[in-house]
Design a protein that fits this description.
2 domains, alpha/beta, 12 strands, Rossmann fold, 7-stranded parallel sheet, disordered N terminus, 327 residues
């Protein structure tokens, strides 16, 4: 591990949102990748459903789970911590449109509280802030967004993530807090929340129910297997990338209707099992396309290890075998 020449001692990291979809995969990724790393997982007190995401690392002597609220006092957690990976956030766009206040508390105030805690700590940990490609807003162009493009968020969720980014950057300039900001596209994989689009499609296909596609189905999203996202973050940190924003993209783009057809093809089902849904009552403004490039990662010789076909098949197989997760 090359970060700040930490080879001479064990690395200790704190992962917020450790019971979330991506955060839980990252915890397991680190424990499996770095045999010297010690990991503190931090999240709100949760039920057994969420805890099952980390069931395979229960009993691992290098892992400790702590329950709490990162909007409150977390100073004791930073003792000996080298890096804070801040995954914790509210992420449902539709929910943010209906109730923005909780997103502001968690995604803006929560990030501020973590930054303040780091600022006051005698040995300031390095902060990795996990953001989203949605901060750029929508585009209809074939020219992808680079890290130099301006943020233009269009919903409360992406606006709160953009606010978090600005706070992180300001704390580097004002207080010397070292950081890395990553902006990733849509993730998919095992243990994803059953209200997210891919698990919904799989659940409906399993019972022969029409797959709901936001009309007209032409919205485009790029997809990255969650393990590749974790691998990209680790590659950036391992290469000492700091005080900058880095896009993470696997380059696999699908229209929403293509994603639905992909699932139906897997199950050998007819394409008539697609139902167009009017989104105006759910999400008054629906971004047409997010489109980012990741030349910084490519310069490090990083490439996703999982093709879209392999990742989707692995994911659908898992949900098919673990239908309890879908409820």
């Amino acid at each position: 591990m090359s970060y700040e020449e930490k080879e001479e001692k064990e690395m200790k990291i704190l992962v917020t949102g450790a019971l979330g979809f991506i955060g839980s995969h990252f915890v397991k990724y680190v424990l499996n990748t770095d045999s010297d790393a010690k990991v503190i997982g931090f999240d709100i007190d949760s039920d057994q459903w969420s805890l099952s995401r980390l069931a395979e690392v229960n009993g691992n002597k290098r892992f400790r789970m702590v329950f709490g609220d990162f909007c409150e006092d977390i100073s004791e957690l930073l003792e000996g911590v080298d890096i804070v990976f801040h995954f914790g956030a509210k992420t449902f766009v539709d929910h943010s449109v209906r109730s923005p206040e909780s997103f502001i508390r968690n995604n803006v105030y929560g990030t501020f509280n973590i930054l303040e805690t780091i600022r006051k700590w005698k040995c300031k940990p390095f902060l990795v802030y996990i953001s989203t490609d949605e901060v750029y807003g929508q585009t209809e162009s074939d020219i992808p967004f680079t890290e130099k493009d301006l943020m233009n968020p269009t919903n409360p969720y992406s606006a709160t993530k953009a606010c978090g980014e600005l706070l992180v950057k300001s704390y580097e300039k004002s207080f010397g807090v070292q950081y890395l900001i990553t902006r990733c596209e849509n993730n998919y994989g095992e243990y994803q929340h059953p209200q997210k689009v891919l698990p919904v499609y799989i659940k409906y296909a399993l019972v022969g129910k029409p797959l709901p596609v936001y009309s007209p189905g032409l919205h485009k999203r790029k997809w990255l297997y969650v393990q590749d996202h974790c691998d990209a973050i680790w590659a950036l940190v391992s290469n000492g990338i700091k005080n900058q924003v880095v896009n993470i993209s696997g380059g696999c783009e699908l229209q929403n209707i293509e994603l639905a057809k992909y699932v139906l093809d897997y199950f050998g089902m007819d394409k008539t099992l697609i139902e167009m849904v009017d989104t105006r009552s759910i999400r008054p403004f629906h971004d047409l396309r997010y489109h980012i490039e990741s030349s910084t990662l490519e310069a490090l010789k990083w490439m996703p290890k999982t093709s879209l076909e392999a990742g989707m098949r692995k994911t659908i197989d898992w949900f098919k075998q673990n239908q309890w997760w879908l409820g």
